[in-house]
Design brief:
It is a single chain. The chain has 565 residues and is an alpha+beta fold. It folds into two domains: 3-98, Sandwich (Immunoglobulin-like), CATH 2.60.40.180; 143-558, no CATH class. It contains 15 helices and eight strands. The chain has helices at residues 105-128, 138-141, 173-190, 210-234, 239-260, 280-298, 321-340, 369-378, 388-392, 403-425, 430-452, 470-493, 503-506, 509-519, 535-558, and strands at residues 3-10, 16-22, 31-36, 41-48, 53-59, 65-71, 78-86, 89-98. A four-stranded mixed sheet has the order 4-1-7-8, with no helix packed on it. Strands 3-2-5-6 form a four-stranded antiparallel sheet, with no helix packed on it. Strand 2 (16-22) and strand 3 form a beta hairpin. The relative contact order is 0.12. The model is unreliable at 131-153 and 158-169 (pLDDT under 50).
Length: 565
C-alpha cells in the first residue's frame, strides 16, 4: 500500500547510484535508494507514492549527476528507468511495466455508500409521512431530550433565571454536532484513516484533515466553558464552588490521560522508562483549567446591553479585557521562548524538524525551543515516534502535546470562548451572530495567511500542528468559526438538519474518546487484517470501528446514559 516498484536498467560501462528526496521534505539531503552495476545489470527498489519524489542518478566513478527528475508515482505501479549513454552524458528513459491501480477508488465507493445511507435516512420520514410518531424514525426527525453532558447547561443560550415568564431556552444542538463531528473524525483518524496520507498528521509543516480535529475540539471546549459558567453563575453558584468544580474536572482529565491512555496490552509490562507524561487528555485538562479559571475570576455576571456607538462594535470584547490581557501575555511568552531561547547546538528561533532537513545541518534540533523545553522537563518520558521521524529521519523524541504547544492550545480555546460570548451577547439576533463569526473567520484567516506567507515552509511562522504554531491556531480558528457558523445556521436557525449522527458522540464525548482508545484494538472494533496491500480493508476497518462507536453513543443516548465529569 502506498508503494510502487522501480526497476533501473543500467546500460553504461560504469555503475551508478540512485538517490531520492521527497518534495514534501524541506531542504532535505538526498538519500541513497539503490546501486546498479554496469554493463546491462538491473536492480529494483520500492518507493513511496504518498508525495512527489525527486530522483537523481550519479555515476559511481566521477560522482557526476547523469539525470534528475521529479515524479509522483502511483500505488501498485511497476516502473522501469533505462539508463543509457548519449554522447558524453547519460540519459534516463521511463516506461511503465505494470499500470498502477486507483488508490482513491475505495474512498470514492465509501463516500457513495455513506451518501446513499444518509439519503435513505433523510427521505424515509417523508415516505412514512409520520416522522414524529413513528418510533423507528424518531431519532431522525425529532429533537431528543436536551441533556448537558460535559458542562452544566453548557449549550443553552439563555436560562429561566433571566425571566421566569419566558419559555425555557433550548440547547444549541450545533455545538454538540460540531463536537461530535470532530470526535468522529478523530476516531476515524486514530483507526488509521484508511491508510490515506491526508487522514494522517502532516510530517512536519503543513495541514491535513487529521490536523484539524484536535483544535476543533479545543475550540468547542472554549465555547462550552463560556456558556456553562455563565449559566452556573446565573444560578447562584459561587466562586468557591466553581473553583472546586473546575479543579475536579481538570484532575479527572489529567489522571485519565496519564493513567489509562498511556498503556496498551501490546506494550508489555508497565515501565516508568517509557511512560509518556504529556498527552491529549492532559492538554485538554490544562486548557480547560486555564479557560475556566479565567471565567471564574473575570467573567462578568451581566453583559451590558446598552452603550454608546463607540463601544458597540466591541461590546462583547471590552468587558473581558483582563482575559485578553492574560492571553496576550501567554502568546508573548510563547513567541519569546520560541524565538529567543538559546538551544544548545541549534540556531535561535529554529522551527524545523531537524534530522536530514535544512541540508542536515541541525540533526538534533527537532522542534527547536519546544523540543528542548520538553526534553529538559520530561527526559525520555514523552512521545518517541513523532510524525517527522520517518520522512526527516529524526532521532530526538518530540511530543506534539508538549509544554509550549499547551500555551497556544489555551489561546485556541480562548478563541472558542469568544464564540460562546458572541452566542450569549447576540442571542436572538442570528444575523449578528453569523456576521461576527464571519468577521472572526476573516481576521484569523488573514492572520494565518500573513504569518505563513501562504506557503507550507517559507513563512514567518509556518502552519505546524506539532508545534501548535501561532499560524496553525489562526488557520484552524478560521475553519472553526466557519464550520460552527454553518452548523448553527443549518441546525439551530433553519432546522434543516438535526445533527444526526454526530450529535450522539458529541453528547458522550468522554466515553467515546476513552472507550475507543482503550478498546479500539479489540474485536469487534478492529482485527488483524489479511489484505494490507491496498486501502480496501484499511478503510473498511476504520469506517466499521468508527461506526460502531457512533452506534454505541446512539444507544446510550436512547437510554439517557451520559458520562459526565
Amino acid at each position: 500500500m502506498d508503494q510502487a516498484l522501480l526497476t533501473f536498467y543500467n546500460h553504461l560501462s560504469e555503475g551508478v547510484d540512485v538517490f531520492y528526496t521527497s518534495d514534501y521534505c524541506y531542504k532535505c539531503l538526498y538519500q541513497p535508494l539503490i546501486s546498479v552495476e554496469d554493463n546491462n545489470h538491473n536492480a529494483s527498489a520500492v518507493v513511496s507514492t504518498k508525495f512527489t519524489l525527486t530522483m537523481q542518478v550519479e555515476s559511481q566513478i566521477g560522482k557526476a549527476v547523469l539525470c534528475r527528475w521529479s515524479q509522483t508515482y502511483e500505488e501498485g505501479g511497476h516502473y522501469a528507468v533505462w539508463i543509457n549513454q548519449h554522447l558524453t552524458n547519460g540519459t534516463c528513459r521511463h516506461t511503465v511495466d505494470k499500470s498502477p491501480h486507483n488508490a482513491d477508488l475505495p474512498l470514492l465507493v465509501a463516500a457513495l455508500l455513506l451518501s446513499l445511507i444518509d439519503l435513505v435516512f433523510v427521505v424515509a420520514p417523508y415516505i412514512y409521512r409520520r416522522p414524529c410518531t413513528t418510533i423507528r424514525l424518531r431519532s431522525v426527525c425529532c429533537q431528543g431530550p436536551q441533556h448537558s453532558v460535559d458542562d452544566d447547561k453548557a449549550h443553552a443560550v439563555g436560562s429561566d433565571a433571566e425571566n421566569p415568564t419566558q419559555p425555557k431556552q433550548t440547547r444549541l444542538r450545533s455545538l454538540d454536532t460540531f463536537r461530535g463531528f470532530s470526535l468522529t473524525l478523530m476516531v476515524f483518524v486514530n483507526y488509521g484513516g484508511g491508510g490515506y496520507w491526508f487522514f494522517q498528521h502532516a510530517p512536519w509543516n503543513g495541514l491535513t484533515v487529521a490536523d484539524l480535529v484536535m483544535p476543533w475540539f479545543v475550540f468547542i471546549i472554549g465555547t462550552s466553558v463560556a456558556l456553562a459558567f455563565r449559566s452556573m453563575r446565573r444560578k447562584g453558584v459561587g466562586r468557591p464552588q466553581l473553583l472546586r468544580k473546575l479543579t475536579w474536572r481538570t484532575a479527572v482529565l489529567v489522571l485519565l490521560g496519564f493513567c489509562f491512555m498511556n498503556y496498551s496490552p501490546r506494550d508489555g509490562p508497565l515501565s516508568w522508562s517509557w511512560l509518556r507524561v504529556p498527552g491529549v487528555l492532559q492538554r485538554l485538562g490544562f486548557t480547560y483549567f486555564a479557560l475556566s479559571l479565567m471565567q471564574t475570576l473575570w467573567g462578568r455576571r451581566e453583559i451590558p446591553a446598552t452603550g454608546g456607538r463607540r463601544w458597540k462594535p466591541v461590546r462583547d470584547l471590552a468587558p473581558y479585557w483582563p482575559e485578553w490581557l492574560l492571553v496576550v501575555v501567554l502568546e508573548a511568552a510563547w513567541l519569546g521562548v520560541t524565538f529567543l531561547l538559546p538551544v544548545p547546538g541549534c540556531p535561535t528561533g529554529y522551527l524545523g524538524a531537524g534530522g536530514i532537513s535544512d541540508e542536515g545541518l541541525y540533526p538534533n534540533c527537532t522542534g527547536g525551543a519546544a523540543g528542548y523545553v520538553d526534553r529538559w522537563m520530561f527526559g525520555d518520558n514523552m512521545y518517541r515516534y513523532p510524525t517527522c521521524r520517518e520522512m526527516y529521519q529524526t532521532t530526538q523524541p518530540f511530543d506534539p502535546e508538549g509544554m509550549l504547544g499547551t500555551i497556544n492550545s489555551i489561546v485556541m480555546g480562548f478563541i472558542g470562548m469568544q464564540a460562546g460570548k458572541i452566542l450569549i451577547f447576540y442571542r436572538g439576533n442570528n444575523v449578528s451572530i453569523l456576521s461576527r463569526f464571519l468577521v472572526w473567520a476573516v481576521i484569523l484567516g488573514a492572520s494565518a495567511a500573513i504569518l505563513c506567507k501562504c506557503t507550507r515552509d517559507g513563512g514567518f511562522i509556518p502552519v505546524n500542528k506539532n508545534l501548535w504554531s501561532l499560524s496553525y491556531v489562526a488557520c484552524t480558528g478560521c475553519f472553526s468559526f466557519l464550520l460552527l457558523g454553518g452548523m448553527y445556521f443549518v441546525i439551530d436557525v433553519k432546522g434543516w438538519w438535526g445533527g444526526q449522527p454526530f450529535i450522539y458522540p458529541g453528547m458522550n464525548s468522554i466515553l467515546v474518546y476513552v472507550g475507543h482508545s482503550l478498546l479500539g484494538f479489540y474485536f469487534p472494533f478492529s482485527w488483524e487484517m489479511r489484505f494490507q496491500g491496498s486501502h480496501w480493508e484499511w478503510l473498511f476497518q476504520g469506517l466499521w470501528g468508527t461506526s460502531l462507536w457512533v452506534l454505541v453513543a446512539y444507544l446510550l443516548y436512547r437510554k439517557n446514559f451520559f458520562v459526565k465529569i
